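ESCALATION

Customer reports they have been waiting on this structure for their group meeting. Please prioritize. Original submission:
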Amino acid sequence: MRTYLLLSLILATILSTNLNAKNMYDRIQSMEAQMRSLQKEITTLKEANEKVLEAATKVDEEAAAQEVQEATPDNVSSIKDVLAAKEEDDDAEDAEDANVSEEDDSDEESADDEDEFEDETSIADLEESISELNRATGGNHLKFQVDYRFATDNIHYKMADGSTAKNDALLTNRLWLNMGYKATNNLTFKGQLAYYKAFGARTGIASTARMEDFDWIASENPYNDTLRVRQAYFLWQNRTFLGAQIPWTFSIGRRPSTNGHLINFRDDNHASSPLAHGINVEFDGLSSKFTVIPSLGTSIKFCLGRGMSNAKAKFSSTPYATNKTTNPAIDLAGLIFVLYDDKQYSLNTMYYFANNLIDANSNNSGFDTVGGMHSGTANITMKGIGDEWSDFLDETIFFISGAFSKTVPNNKTNSLGTKGMLGSTHSKVGYSYWVGTQFPSLLTEDGRWGVEYNHGSKYWRAITYGEDTLAGSKIAARGNAYEAYFTEYLVEDILSMQLRYTYIDYQYSGSNGFFGNTTGTPMTMAEAKAKGYGSQIANKAQDIRFYIRYRF
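Update from on-call: job pushed to the front of the queue and completed.
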């Protein structure tokens, strides 16, 4: 214990007094030298503790072996008694250790337990002090990870009038720079910079539509050479809430709201929190999650987001005041309720309401505000079918998901002189269902293959513009969508490739439009052709993608 006290005094002196150095460089060098010395001392202490434990274990084993060796055939029962007694002692010791871990202030702790606990506490204190010293000398840095993908997409469309459009080979580069820094055990920063560019396209050269850089999809579509902030937020987490044993989190910033649950399987990504059947867009907002029944994985997460701001520009007569001549801000509020999740089977639900939703106006220079929308979804996921029925089923994933949407028109006259949402002044309900499975590769040990199918009704409306399908969001389809993919790893978990085929058979138009009458009204292919929109409305779409991806 004297060693720990001495180290603590030395460290306190380092952190509280001014070092006798001639300049700041000498001071930092001196502090780093002290840090290295402390780290060496900690390593020595840990090694000593390990040797003591090893020696104690060896003594116990030798003593037991000696008792067995000295036993004779006449006292076999006594040998069994010795072993049984030793087993009971071990069980009792394990139980005592468990109690100590739950109640550190137990009065039944032995002196050895107290010393060991004090040793561990002292080492933890020293490590925390060294972390502070690291921060003071610039020893801690933001951690980065690289995720680069080259892809080529073969895209074909058949329009309502029978004409076709295609791109035999759209080549793209996508780069994600993931960053993170854990300042304390409770507080973490996470961010992601994104670059997604079609080969040969640069700002001011390639012609793009006005809505290409809409905030919901700013980093999801390939067009120019801009590096954007795709995610930036801090995360606070704690094991207790207001004194109760309820793990909880709080986060605010540019949200990780794309590549959510279920769509992440085919995208080969970790899932973000939204259920991708209803939400797959970028937005700014906050969330707070509470794990109410940890043993069942039951949790509830509250979310607030803003998808468009109506603040005036900086160089106006009233900078950043509310601009009453434009659309109101688009706001979204919702919750994600996980009823059960044991890491194999899970039941997830999500509900949200989005207000002040928009549609492109008649002259394509702005937006009309058309109303709000309720949306809900629920899914059941099985990550492994059965309990060790077979290796193949153990590694097979199956899911089924259902969703609905319900419009709430404000019935204000829009730029076309009409009212309503999705071509109607009345509230309309749409629905969608989605099933899929992913299973081990039939060729390699680490590869994954999958097939999926989803269907959407006439008035189905999803906010999934950020989905990673260049031919249009398959989940938003008012019709039927089919998909098959093959993901294989070439170099460990660093270099991978995927071949994916997506086919969408639209039964109604407006699947990838907004929420009003201009781009959201559903029409059959025959109706679209009769109204002169046959060359503008896609009847069928397919996207064959091949990519090579590097992650490290």
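Sent to customer with the following note: The chain has two domains: 2-136, 143-551.
Escalation resolved.
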